[in-house]
Design a protein that fits this description.
Elements lengths: L18 E4 L14 H8 L4 E5 L6 H14 L3 E4 L6 H7 L3 E3 L4 H10 L3 H9 L4 E4 L1 H4 L28 E6 L13 H11 L4 E5 L2 E6 L2 E6 L3 E4 L6 E3 L6 H4 L10 E3 L1 H9 L4 E5 L3 H6 L5 E3 L17 E5 L4 H12 L6 E4 L2 H8 L8
Parallel strand pairs: 1-5, 2-3, 2-4, 4-5, 6-7, 12-16, 13-14, 13-15, 15-16
Antiparallel strand pairs: 1-8, 7-10, 8-9, 10-11
The chain binds aspartic acid.
Aspartic acid binds next to α6 and β6.
Length: about 350
């Protein structure tokens, strides 16, 4: 059987490819795959049986039984590739594949040992749905160079499946400004990667996922992703955003952000101007303090609920201090929102300080 050597960059995105890359299998406060269940079901649709790849963990039997039980609860049968007498054949005949998390080096080494990389690539190119979680998401990228795992074993190469043209950095953790730990942050590690390489990296926070389908790459889940590209400042992205623009060579840049102070806003409102005020904080914050006539759309929902904002009216976006609203404006602009968006400088806190001290500060 001749080996057709397909590398990520040569893979044709014919629009048939379907890939779901999940940052983590268990989200704090819930059980195995709970946070991804609705996305997995929606992604797999009427697939009957899923092939599991347990190689990232040492105890493959135990891992397979956990995954099998969980997929059964979602209504899917599951077989594990480690139980198959001919693993390549199992891949060739699979309806869908799920590669679980664990140690990324161990996973990739096994994929090489069992000579499965080309089979998986060909099947995914032909439309077989691919779900990866954590290490299983890492190996979907061109290489595994952005894992934080220890190289506990040595695969013959760091080149991975290359199903997508970007790197994943799963379990992305924002730097803690109060931490006294002096080791590199995940951001620093990724920036070091970009000093040596020129591939976009998606820092997927826990709870985040990327779904590739019909040629688009959409951020799903709850927690957003930080995108790193050589030569650009890191970008914050929100659920619902199409991330294709970060992986295409001609990325449209975000427009200059307009700002308004609380005092100016008050004057314009008093002057009778028709301004639409969007509050991107959380419902519990809105309960504590709010601006009159403002509409609440929490940051995490802003892209998916973009059609609730009237592009014909000038829109002032605010949060507590001005940071989340800036992220919301950038995300809306990238998503193609056509209207004028203005950030309230200093957020509702500035409003309490400058305009109306009766609005509680928190
Ligand atoms: N060890 C992680 C996982 O599979 C992968 C990573 O952090 O890169 O859970």
């Amino acid at each position: 059987m001749p080996l057709i050597h397909l590398r990520g960059e040569n893979m044709i995105d014919n629009g048939i490819k379907r890939v779901l890359l999940v940052s983590n299998s268990t989200l704090y406060g819930s059980s195995y795959l709970d946070h991804a269940e609705s996305e997995i079901r929606d992604f797999l649709g009427n697939v009957g049986r899923v092939l599991f790849v347990p190689y990232a963990l040492y105890d493959r039997d135990a891992y397979a039984s956990t995954a099998r039980e969980r997929y059964r609860a979602m209504g899917y049968d599951m077989e594990s590739v480690h139980e198959a007498s001919d693993p390549r054949r199992a891949v060739n005949e699979a309806e869908a594949i799920f590669i679980g998390g664990g140690n990324t080096f161990r996973l990739l080494k096994s994929l090489y040992d069992f000579d499965l990389l080309d089979s998986v690539r060909l099947r995914v190119e032909g439309g077989m749905p691919y779900i990866g979680s954590s290490a299983g998401s890492n190996v979907a990228g061109p290489t595994i160079r952005t894992t934080k795992d220890m190289p506990i074993v040595q695969p013959p190469s760091f080149d991975a499946l290359g199903l997508v043209s970007f790197q994943i950095s799963p379990h992305y953790l924002d730097p803690d400004p109060n931490s006294m730990h002096m080791g590199e942050t995940q951001e620093q590690r990724i920036l070091q990667f970009l000093e040596e390489n020129d591939t976009t990296v998606f820092g997927l926070r826990e709870g985040a996922m990327v779904r590739v389908e019909r040629g688009s790459t959409v951020l799903k889940g709850s927690s957003g992703a930080r995108i790193f590209r050589k030569g650009y400042a890191p970008a914050e992205t929100l659920p619902g955003e199409n991330l294709n623009q970060f992986i295409s060579p001609n990325t449209p840049e975000v427009r200059q952000m307009e700002e308004i102070t609380a005092t100016e806003l008050k004057q314009r409102l008093d002057g009778g101007e028709d301004l639409q005020i969007i509050d991107v904080r959380e419902p519990d914050e809105y309960e504590i303090a709010r601006l009159e006539n403002s509409k609440l759309i929490p940051l995490g929902q802003i892209v998916n609920r973009m059609d609730e904002i009237d592009p014909a009216r000038e829109t002032v976006v605010h949060c507590q201090g001005g940071k989340r609203s800036a992220k919301a404006i950038e995300a809306l602009q990238r998503a193609g929102f056509a209207g004028r968006l203005v950030n309230l400088k200093g957020g509702i806190t500035a409003w309490s300080d400058e305009v109306d001290p009766s609005v509680p500060k928190y």
